[in-house]
Amino acid sequence: MRIAVESRDFKKSVQFKGKTVGQLMRGLKLSPENFVISKSGGVVLEDEILSDGDKIRLFPVISGG
Amino acid sequence: MKCSRCGKKAVAEPRYLDESLCSKHFSELFERRVKRTISGSGMLDRKRDKIAVGVSGGKDSLVLLYLFKKFHYNIVAVTIDEGIKGYRDNSLSYIRKFCARYKIPWKLYSLKKEYGFTLDSIPDKRLMCSHCGVLRRGLLNKKARELKCTKVATGHNLDDETQMVLMNLFRGELERLARCGPVTGRIEDELFVPRVKPLRECPEREDVLYALLHKIKYTDVECPYAKYAYRNVIRGVLNRMEERYPGTKFAVLKNFDKMLPFLREYYAPKEQSRRCRKCGEMTKGEICKFCETIENFG
Fold first, then answer.
1. Superfamily for B45-269?
2. pTM of the model
3. B137 at A interface, C-beta within 8 A
4. Which of A6, B73, B187, B223 could make an SS bond with A65 (beta carbons 3.0 to 4.6 A apart)?
5. Is this prediction's ipTM beyond 0.90?
């Protein structure tokens, strides 16, 4: 399936063979600890199941000065 | 994952708590914690205090403003524009929109207008955070006084506070540490507006989550000078410890708070603060740190 992923520093569409948000994050080599994750505008946890065409937005925990 | 308290969809899984929480129960926990921080240290009096809230446009300061509004405090938002291109200019529109939406009075002061220079013009970037801190705190204190505010509140979170504790310990700056805590400073001086930190028990991650759940739009741009900060190294150490031993940050803060009365007694000021011969503000020496910084770079 194809998932759109957007964060402060990047925006991309990725081909994904796994099931959950946690697997997606590990595939992207990103630590879920460093982001709050949303799907279609709602906050989700690592066990959230993904479907083709889902849009994921990553909010970095660290920001500011 | 389901909320451990009501079975609805969970949005938070704080490892230090060992439970999952839905939006409602997470928000309740977060707000209760802030109320407890405020009442536990007696930092604010809702009827008497007028609070200057230092606002940068980031998640912490806007969450703090939101909560003050929700808890019916007498507030004025104050922003210090240090003149960092691509950073501060980006954040101003977020603050403007937020304050208009919640009908909060907002005051903006810039180093450029007040003193004719910007932080970007300082050539040596290595000590930027230190210079920025001196200038922002100094100007915020002065403006809060002019606005007849009795307290200055900042959005420092649990991560900021525990980093500050370790930074001062590692550098051997115990006297500086004695000035920290829920109500900053140990100065009894009519020119000093006490600074308070109501979010100091809120993990940084939870500030982001609370902002998202309550549709608080903030800027997540990082300060371009943050990469020079010693704080980054300490942040990494603490985050690794927290990941391996959940609850580490709370333990550091709790134990620091226990030590604080002893530190304050040991480092109690032996003499009253003096007046800077340039600006008339508080100082230990002949001229204050603020004027010293301006003299060097202005």
1. HUPs (3.40.50.620)
2. 0.94
3. no
4. B223
5. yes
